[in-house]
Amino acid sequence: MVRFENVGLRYGPGQEVLRDLSFRIAPHSFQFLTGPSGAGKTSLLRLLFLSLKPTRGLISVFGRDTTAIARRDLPDIRRRIGIVFQDFRLLDHLTTFENVALPLRVLGREETVYRAEVVELLRWVGLGDRINAYPPVLSGGEKQRAAIARAVIARPEFLLADEPTGNVDPHLARRLLRLFVELHKSGTSVLIATHDIALMDLYDARRFLLEDGRLTIHD
Ligand SMILES: Nc1ncnc2c1ncn2[C@@H]1O[C@H](COP(=O)(O)OP(=O)(O)OP(=O)(O)O)[C@@H](O)[C@H]1O
């Protein structure tokens, strides 16, 4: 589903922040991505979401060479990917419900059809009493859960999450991990970037370790 061959990334004239990355991500797979702060995890997620281009090497996503994808085709590809950004990126003028429902609206679904499903997911992530609140009044952990709900609601083929449990307590972190595992079991490939070793120990999955821009994989 995803293939990297000798991928390198540099932001400016300096050193490469990612070096010689070669790996595959299979359909229906689950992997954690870990490594010290500044190792390049967010940069790797941005390459996977096609919001950055590599400086060298080949990236293919859903079987398509990303250098050959026209800008106008990007939204269609990104629609197949759910992403939880480290800074959440909720839309401040929409309620929690509307933010989470957005991927379904974009797919042309009717609110009467999806309303109950969105409400149930919001309750599941502990936001049942924040459905009509706007992001500026949510706490960091509440925003994070809304961002997670938005990323999973349309059951994407590929889920990327950047430190998705960084703002919640260990009990809630376990609950959110269960959500990712359920999604994985229903067919999604999942990649979760995290520093949380206790969280990774809860689920037997492949670990991608980034250190100083280089990747090692522990099956
Ligand atoms: N837009 C940018 N311009 C220049 N350098 C950048 C940019 N974004 C990231 N970097 C640099 O690239 C390196 C990797 O950063 P990245 O955010 O990918 O690491 P990370 O592993 O996600 O870190 P953290 O765990 O702290 O979020 C760092 O040295 C960072 O300073």
UniProtKB/TrEMBL annotation:
Cell compartments where the protein resides:
Cell inner membrane; Cell membrane
Molecular function per GO: ATP binding
Q: How does it sit in the membrane?
A: Peripheral membrane protein
> According to its UniProt record, which protein family does this protein belong to?
Belongs to the ABC transporter superfamily.
Give me the gene this protein comes from.
ftsE
Its main localization is membrane
Please identify the protein, giving its name as recorded: Cell division ATP-binding protein FtsE
The ABC transporter domain extends over 2-217
Subunit organization: Homodimer. Forms a membrane-associated complex with FtsX.
